[in-house]
Amino acid sequence: MDSKSPSKKESTDQVARESLIAISNTSPDKILDSNSVSESKKSDGGVLPNCDQDEQFRSELISISYSESPDVKIGSISMGV
């Protein structure tokens, strides 16, 4: 194998690196579809993001992070007093 030609793993790593850089360089307004973002209108014609939906997602993520893992079984520990 020629020392100048990159191995398959190196080329895969390079593609992954370039993809991550491209993702990080994109702005959110290019990614989000205007229909996917719920918004409520203000009386002056401006638009506010739907905070209730944000709060719902936040609560769901918190509940997932605090839920007990199905793999871990916690037995009762009796403390001798």
TrEMBL record:
Note one Pfam family from the annotation: DUF6865
Highest taxon, organism lineage: Eukaryota
In residue numbers, the region (Disordered) covers: 1-53
Compositionally biased intervals (Polar residues): 22-38
List where Basic and acidic residues composition bias occurs: 1-16
PANTHER family in the record, alphabetically?
F5D14.24 PROTEIN (PTHR35282)
User: What protein am I looking at?
Assistant: Uncharacterized protein LOC101513425
Question: What taxonomic lineage is listed for the species of origin?
Answer: Eukaryota, Viridiplantae, Streptophyta, Embryophyta, Tracheophyta
In the UniProt record, the gene name given for this protein reads LOC101513425
